Every structure is written in C-alpha cells, then in structure tokens.
Amino acid sequence: MSRRTSLKITDERERQLEKASEIVASGPDDDPPMSVVIDAALTHLVQSEENIQSARNELDPTTIQQFNTDVLALQYRTKVETRWR
C-alpha cells in the first residue's frame, strides 16, 4: 500500500462516505467524524474476509457465494479473491 498525504473526495466517494456515516451514526442527530467512518469500514472489510475464510470449511460454495461483494468474493473453494483492484 502506498502512503498518501491527502485523500481526494470524489462525488462517488462522498456519497459512499455519507451512506457509511449514516450506518455508523448512533442516531439521526449523530455526525461521526470521517476517521471513525473510515475505521469502521476498514474493520468491517477485515472481519468480512476473516468470516469468509472461516466459513469456507463449513458451508458449500453456493451458499458462501451469496455473500460475494464488489470487494471480496469466493472463487469456488480455491481462494478468496479481492475484487477491489
């Protein structure tokens, strides 16, 4: 991962941050800082990958593939693929 000193907020990224902020907020009047929203999203990504890896031995591939996302996906039983890049 390369280190950057700034983060460009495109319109699409702004929409995603707003939606994530609504999910993270403790109520309709809560406006969490961007760092909290990003930390929650990163934690969710790491935990999701761990959960998919754990479930590979317990569930059939068809069931696990129902939980594929644009970021993580199970390719049969052979590997968990990251789709982001």
The residue fraction in helices comes out at: 40-55%
Total count of helical runs of at least 4 residues? 3
Beta strand % = 5-15%
Q: Which oligomeric form is depicted?
A: single chain
Number of strands: 2
Content-based structural category:
mainly alpha
- Rounded to an integer in angstroms, the radius of gyration calculated over CA atoms is 16 Å
Q: On the 0-100 scale, what is the average pLDDT?
A: 84
**Morphology:** globular
Element-level helix/strand string: HHHEE
Record the strand order, biggest sheet.
1-2
How is the biggest beta sheet arranged? 2 strands, antiparallel
Cα-to-Cα separation, first versus last residue:
12 Å
Low-confidence stretches: none
In short:
This protein has helices at residues 11-24, 34-55, 61-65, and strands spanning 72-75, 79-82. The chain is mainly α and 85 residues long.
Task: Give an overview of the whole structure.
There is one protein chain. The chain is mainly α and 85 residues long. The protein has helices at residues 11-24, 34-55, 61-65; strands spanning 72-75, 79-82. A two-stranded antiparallel sheet has the order 1-2. The radius of gyration is 16 Å and the shape is globular. The mean pLDDT is 84.
